[in-house]
């Protein structure tokens, strides 16, 4: 897992075209929480940071759109499918 750093979060969010609200929705927190993470006033708990990295990785690997039209349930389902595909191909997730 990539270690958390506020700049890393900002860069990842920008690379995926996500607002703070969009990133927050992916990991079920408020936009204010993401703002605090990026301003180094707080750190995400490791599980939320890992969840965000997994979802952004799935976006890169499988070309998923992270737009507002896609629900969190759809993103979670796609992440599970991606993990299952990796397992079938012998990759460790």
Explain the overall architecture.
This protein has 93 residues and is mostly helical. It has one domain (6-88). Helices cover 63% and strands 0% of the residues. It has helices spanning 6-15, 20-26, 31-38, 46-62, 72-88. Helix 4 (46-62) packs across helix 5. It is elongated and about 40 Å long. The model has no long low-confidence stretch (mean pLDDT 80).
Descriptive tags:
5 helices, mainly alpha, 93 residues, 0% strand, elongated
Count of DSSP H/I helices = 5
Task: Kindly state the number of beta strands.
Answer: 0
Major sheet characteristics: none
Output the radius of gyration: 13 Å
SSE succession: HHHHH
- Structurally, the number of domains stands at 1
Overall pLDDT metric = 80
| Overall SS class | mainly alpha
Shape: elongated
Our estimate of the beta-strand percent is under 5%
